[in-house]
Design goal:
This protein is 30% helix and 30% strand. By secondary structure, it is α/β, with parallel strands linked by helices. It has a 7-stranded mixed beta sheet, sandwiched between helices. The chain binds S-adenosylmethionine.
């Protein structure tokens, strides 16, 4: 497993991007994620890949009784403790691959933009199902499979995207070839895992989770006014969101 957020160059660029008002997290990902969340008052919440803890803090403000934030990155957990602490929130440095070591149950497991870093999705979902109370919810976002699928050709002169008549056309390949993708994002060598939609959905179903809602990211007119390039969300979404209940 890779801990890219403890690479200081990567971390500093990521935080710089997150500190801007206009970014895909603030304008697209967070509003859609929050639209899937009910009030968390009196609930126990686990946030996987919690980053600097903004969702944990939101759960705390909402009145959750206990919140556990788990992240592989010490940089992130240090920042979470500094900026989003509360006596109800416990932050743990731990990879999601080891959540089977947590010995308690939760009403909600949340995860925002972190599952695509985990290789073994079936194990992750099995572990989450064991951590949820019956009728508990898993709500997560991840990079959309149409965005993670592509493996670039060796020939670097080929355009991988082209703008025609106000639309963006992207090259797509390897959609059904699940597995690792190594990409440049702030630095070279960032490892992510592509899974097609049927793998994601069937893994949830096979582990006793009933899907209640699926959203693919989009940009509304207000968002496009703030950042015109987000109109391309409507040609190819960045993010996938799923809300599922443990039966
Ligand atoms: C894109 S950030 C999102 C952070 C936070 N959820 C948010 O939305 O602000 C991805 C987070 O996942 C964490 N992460 C990546 N791989 C992980 C793993 N295997 N186990 C736990 N956390 C991981 C990273 O350290 C990082 O904090």
């Amino acid at each position: 497993m890779q801990n890219i957020y403890d690479n200081n160059k990567f971390f500093n660029e990521y935080i710089e991007m997150r500190n801007k008002d206009i970014n895909a997290n603030n304008l697209i990902e967070k509003p859609i994620f929050l639209s899937l969340l009910p009030c968390l008052k009196d609930k126990k919440v686990l946030d996987l890949g919690c980053g600097y803890g903004d969702l944990c803090k939101l759960a705390d403000t909402d009145g959750a009784t206990k919140i556990v934030g788990v992240d592989i990155s010490k940089n992130m957990i240090d920042l979470a403790i500094k900026t989003n602490s509360s006596n109800k929130i416990k932050y743990i440095i731990k990879p999601m691959e080891k959540i089977n070591e947590i010995n308690e149950k939760f009403d909600f497991v949340l995860s925002s933009l972190a599952f695509h870093y985990v290789e073994n999705f079936d194990k992750l979902i099995k572990d989450i199902a064991k951590l949820l109370h019956k009728d508990g919810y898993l709500i997560f976002s991840q990079e959309h499979p149409v965005a993670t699928a592509f493996i670039p050709p060796k020939n670097k002169n080929i355009d991988t995207k082209v703008d025609i008549e106000n639309k963006r056309y992207y090259l797509l390949s390897d959609y059904n070839n699940n597995g690792i993708r190594t990409v440049h994002w702030n630095i070279d060598g960032v490892k992510k895992y592509h899974r097609n939609i049927s793998t994601i959905i069937n893994t949830l179903i096979d582990n006793g989770l009933q899907i209640e809602k699926v959203i693919e990211s989009y940009a509304d007119d207000e968002t496009i006014k703030l950042e015109p390039k987000y109109k391309y969300q409507n040609d190819r979404p960045y993010f996938l969101f799923i809300k599922a209940k443990l039966l």
